[in-house]
Amino acid sequence: MCSQSTGISDVPGALVIAVIKNSPAATAGILRNDSIIKIDQVDVNSPDDLVAVIRKSKGKSVNVEYIRGGKKNSVQVNL
């Protein structure tokens, strides 16, 4: 879900509203309320951007940049 649709307009990217147990995101340590801003240097500005990049990268290991608690972080995620 995009941060704008939740009323959090100052958070860029796509806001994580849930993480499925044992999913690639969960395994990588991505948490609810993280905001994903880039995947492999590709900007993520909406949920649609996020889905498009994930579809293109299925089966690969990607670098995910996200914001948690106001700080930028990054993690490798095996899709």
List keywords for this structure.
79 residues, alpha+beta, five-stranded antiparallel β-sheet, 2 helices, 20% helix, globular, disordered N terminus
Descriptive overview:
The chain is an alpha+beta fold and 79 residues long. The protein has 2 helices and 5 strands; from the N terminus they run E-H-E-E-H-E-E. It has helices at 24-28, 47-57; strands spanning 14-15, 35-39, 42-43, 61-68, 71-78. Strands 1, 2, 3, 4 and 5 form a 5-stranded antiparallel beta sheet that branches. The two termini are 19 Å apart.
Describe the oligomeric state of these chains in a short phrase.
Answer: single chain
Q: Low-confidence parts, pLDDT < 50 over ≥5 residues?
A: 1-7
Shape descriptor: globular
Task: Estimate the helix proportion, in percent.
Answer: 10-25%
Rg, alpha carbons: 11 Å
Mean pLDDT: 88
How many H/I helices?
Answer: 2
Short note summarizing the structure:
Helix content is 20%, strand content 32%. It has 79 residues and is an alpha+beta fold. Strands 1, 2, 3, 4 and 5 form a five-stranded antiparallel sheet that branches.
